[in-house]
Design goal:
Chain A: This is PIG-L family deacetylase. The complex is a heterodimer. By secondary structure, chain A is of the alpha/beta class. Chain A is built from 7 helices and 7 strands, in the order βαβαβαβαβαβααβ. Chain A has a 7-stranded mixed sheet with strand order 3-2-1-4-5-7-6, sandwiched between helices. In chain A, helix 2 packs antiparallel against helix 6. The chains are: A alpha/beta, B alpha/beta.
Chain lengths: ~230, ~240
């Protein structure tokens, strides 16, 4: 497998750990390049050193904080132009962000996803200046993190990824960000266990004990076959 | 890539040609095993070209449709085609027929199945009847307590993909996967040309393949794709373990 660049864009840095920490560790272990852009300042400047340390430990090689006001997320047209330039500069093979369905309980997540899509739209327009950076391809695939209440927002899993070997790495990072938050930890674990049941029992991935699920924003083109 | 078994179940003989002929030819060319089950010949409702001829009869229609189906299957490289010769318009899938299909699934043990989409097609209820019957049959095949002539139980997770219907939007079809069929498109054209009883279909399905190819190339990054077929996906992708592959 060719080395890829995975770009994650989330409201908070902790969203990436909770939603796709296992996949970050997996991609990093396989030698892929993983970058994270955090849109809001909701976690506070004081936490930044800890977040940097934890994300780096998980395998994120570049972490940027856009530091826009959160709750609600304020993301202006200029911010979209800025993010478009970042897309052109990073040239990711694929992007992971929040689900594209509006999230009633965490509206910032829906706003972030919409901002990513709008910014990508700009990045792929040859006539948008973006500091003279080469235009982005039209076809970069995007995937949505599993929300806390999937059915409520109409989220549907499109890809399940076995993260069993990377569970410890993920939960070590998780515990540093949410020490003592047993409820949150349990929910995170239970969700991964349930997805693993789907991944092994319905997906035929034997030995899968923990999995992370993502929605896919578009159809599959690149493989050229049905089952792979 | 490991050799796989592809099972195609269609309502009428022509369906496997228009809706999946390119993918069948591609898999066959790569050495995979392709089985086609045509539940009906489409004598009543899908042979309108034939019924315009003089002196038409159901028996002659059956013969012609069988020859057309066999010839198309030969051109595409199908390993085995079965004609179950049920009545069409409407297709009637009794419990017994569904059990027969379940046993057939256990016998073949396909790696994946192509059939009509699971969303309602308001223009062709046979397509939905076939799709529903296939899913019921698969449920039976994967139930360890179902008898099915003592054949080993089918796994729960066999992936299924839905054909693109004639009118996509009104049938709520959403493409989930595109297959580039550029290299085998001549075979698909020849196979479609076999179907003299539905001669009006070819041009439409050539255009569809061109449109799907432009999406596959420009939105999917499959450069050089000039012809493609689209299918819906019914389940999440688990097997690959990565996002982009």
């Amino acid at each position: 497998m060719k080395k890829q660049t995975m770009l994650i864009v989330t409201v908070r840095a902790s969203d990436a750990v909770e939603g796709c920490g296992g996949v970050i560790a997996k991609y990093a272990a396989e030698g892929h390049h993983v970058e994270l852009i955090v849109l809001s300042d909701a976690e506070g400047a004081k936490r930044e050193p800890l977040l940097r340390e934890v994300l780096k430990g998980l395998g994120v090689s570049a972490l940027e904080f856009a530091d826009r006001p959160g709750m609600p997320l304020e993301w202006s047209d200029e911010d979209c132009e800025w993010l478009a330039c970042r897309f052109r500069s990073i040239r990711p093979d694929f992007i992971v962000t929040h689900a594209k369905e509006p999230d009633l309980r965490s509206p910032d997540r829906g706003y972030a996803s919409a901002a990513v899509m709008k910014s990508y739209f700009i990045a792929s327009a040859a006539g948008a200046p973006c500091e003279g950076l080469p235009v982005s391809p039209r076809q970069t695939p995007m995937f949505g993190l599993e929300p806390t209440h999937s059915e409520e927002i109409g989220w549907v899993p499109g890809v399940l990824i076995d993260v069993t070997p990377f569970l410890d790495q993920k939960m070590t990072a998780f515990d540093r960000l949410f020490p003592g938050d047993e409820h949150r930890r349990e929910r995170c674990m239970e969700q991964m266990k349930n997805r693993a049941v789907h991944c092994s029992g319905r997906g035929g991935v034997t030995g899968c004990k923990f999995a992370e699920a993502f929605s896919s924003f578009g159809p599959i083109y690149a493989h050229g076959h049905f089952v792979w | 890539m490991e050799k796989q078994k592809m099972l195609v179940v269609c309502a009428h003989v022509g369906d496997f040609i228009w809706r999946s002929g390119g993918s069948i030819a591609k898999y066959a060319r790569e050495g995979h095993e392709v089985t086609v089950i045509a539940l009906t010949y489409g004598i009543r409702g899908e042979s309108n070209g034939y019924w315009k001829r003089g002196g038409s009869s159901a028996d002659e229609c059956r013969e012609i449709r069988r020859r057309e189906g066999e010839e198309a299957a030969r051109i595409l490289g199908v390993s085995r085609i079965e004609f179950w010769d049920y009545q069409d318009y409407p297709l009637l899938m009794t419990d017994e027929r569904i059990e027969r299909l379940a046993c057939k699934i256990r016998e073949i043990r396909p790696d994946f199945i192509l059939t009509h989409d699971k969303e309602p097609d308001p223009y062709n209820m046979d397509h939905n009847l076939a799709s529903d019957a296939l899913r019921t049959a698969y449920t039976i095949a994967s139930g360890a307590g179902a008898v099915c002539n003592g054949l080993p139980v089918a796994p729960r997770q066999t992936p299924m993909f839905g054909f693109e219907p004639h009118m996509t939007e009104i049938s709520s079809f959403t493409p989930g996967i595109y297959i580039d069929i550029t290299d085998v498109f001549e075979q698909k054209k020849q196979a479609m040309a076999c179907c003299t009883t539905q001669a009006n279909m070819s041009a439409h399905y050539i255009r569809k393949a061109e449109i799907r190819a432009s999406e596959c190339a420009n939105r999917g990054g499959v450069s050089g794709c000039r012809y493609a077929e689209a299918f819906s996906t019914w389940g999440a992708v688990c097997m690959h373990g990565h996002f982009v592959w």
